[in-house]
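Suppose you are handed a protein chain with no further information: no name, no annotation, nothing but its sequence. What can you learn? This example shows the usual starting point.
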Amino acid sequence: MKKIAVVLAGGRGSRMNSDIPKQYLMLKDRPVLYYALKAFQDSDIDSIVLAAGENDLEMCRTQIVEKYGINKVMAIVAGGAQRYDTVYNALKAAQELAIDTAPEEVLIYIHDGARPCISREIIKNCEEAALQYGACTAAVPVKDTIKVVSPEGFAVDTPDRNTLWLIQTPQVFRSDIISSAYAKMYADTDRGTITDDAMLVERYTDVPVKMAMGAYTNIKITTPEDMGIAAQYL
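A reasonable first move is to predict its three-dimensional structure. Written in structure tokens, the prediction is:
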């Protein structure tokens, strides 16, 4: 199998209260994005596609990819208006990198650049699940009781905690599966909100998405407090 990682770095991170997008903030003397790229660099991934804001492409190339020797980055592409547009742009670049390989023989690892604490074990868990099932996402079982709440702020239901998982990235798919899902999504003019690629595969294909064990340390940088937490895990 050819293995290509798509690392997303196009977000602006409005909850960070910073003029600098969260993926470029310094975390233990390295940009947050560096750690996600380095994890795939050190894995058996064949190549990496980095998707960033249009105004950040050159900075990513010179100040992160080249500066830190992330030589598996074979393409840097501009993001789009929505997350799924950014992924789609990166998928097209990944398909170009794998043009000599049948889509069913290509694994696409889609990962948030703001998750710096990804480990080799998580990458391996996802690879094994994707090879067996064709579609998976890193995830962990919830520890707390979850409440469904009304718009007025009152509890209306308590789902069985044993059926609930917290979804992370990477999310890994055979290229033919994720490409088919994206084609159907763009043909759907009433697609509504899509929050991740696992949801897209659930909605537009008949392939079930397998949960692959992630880690509670595999946090996404969202608020300033997360920077200190992530630093403890690196």
